[in-house]
Each structure stands twice: as C-alpha cells, then as structure tokens.
Specification:
2 helices; alpha+beta; binds zinc ion
Amino acid sequence: MALRTILTVGDEMLKKKCRPVTEFNDHLATLLDDMTQTLLESGGVGLAAPQIGVLRRVVVLLDINQEPEEVIELINPEVIDMNEPEQVIEGCLSVPGTYGYVMRPTWAKIRAQDRHGNWFEREGEGIVAQCFCHETEHLDGHLFTEKVLEYVEVEQE
Ligand code: ZN
C-alpha cells in the first residue's frame, strides 16, 4: 500500500467528471488499498478517487456509526434515496481549513459495487449520509463549496 497525495482546490482534476469502473482487477484493488490508507492517515471520513488525481468513480469512506469504525468501498456509487435535507456543517480534505453550512439529508441509501463488481445497497445516517452525497458529487467534479450557505469558523484542535 502507498500513501497518495490529496489534491486541493484549484487543481483541475477536482473539476472533472469521472469515468465508471468497468474492470474489477488488481489495479482497482491497489487503488482502493491506497485510498483507504490515505483516508485513515488524513483523519477525514471520506475520499474520492479524483482527490488523488484518478478520474474513476471510486470512493472510500469511514462508517463512524459502526463499532469499530468500518471502511466502506464504493465503486460506481449512486445515491438512490434520501430524507429531507437539513442544515449541517461540512468540510473537505481538498479544501483544508474551510467549513460551511450546507443542506444534507440525515439519512441516505446508496447503491454501489464492491471491489469484485458485486452490486449492493447500504444505508447511512448522519455524517455517513452526508458523506454519501459529498463523495458522489466529487465524482462529477463538484466541491461542497458550491453549496455553502454560510462559511463558519471552526476551532482546530
Ligand atoms: Zn471532499
């Protein structure tokens, strides 16, 4: 496994629409392993492939509602259901130090493939639901800053 560099706002890769994954091979497995290592190292809750310069529809996220926390791999993900959005605070590994209020569902259902190509559905609440939306938007070249209603100052630990 290898740590990858996380691209930050201003990088053109973050604005591009990603292509679907069609081959579920060793190359994909390596990408997923690297993304997981990079995510865990970053302290974030989600990472999309374009954030490390790979224009494929691949996401890893940390389901912090599980005990212990569980890394979920999402290939070709699509949010297929959600509840009424509420105003929540959001940030992004590619926009370091910036936080703002956005409208996000508190519950969402996603459909995706695993690293072997098997389709599955998964529900998420709270930050996980927020992350489903945030990360799939990355795959279409969008950043959360396009949706911010108001920026907020967050105290760093
Ligand atoms: Zn992000």
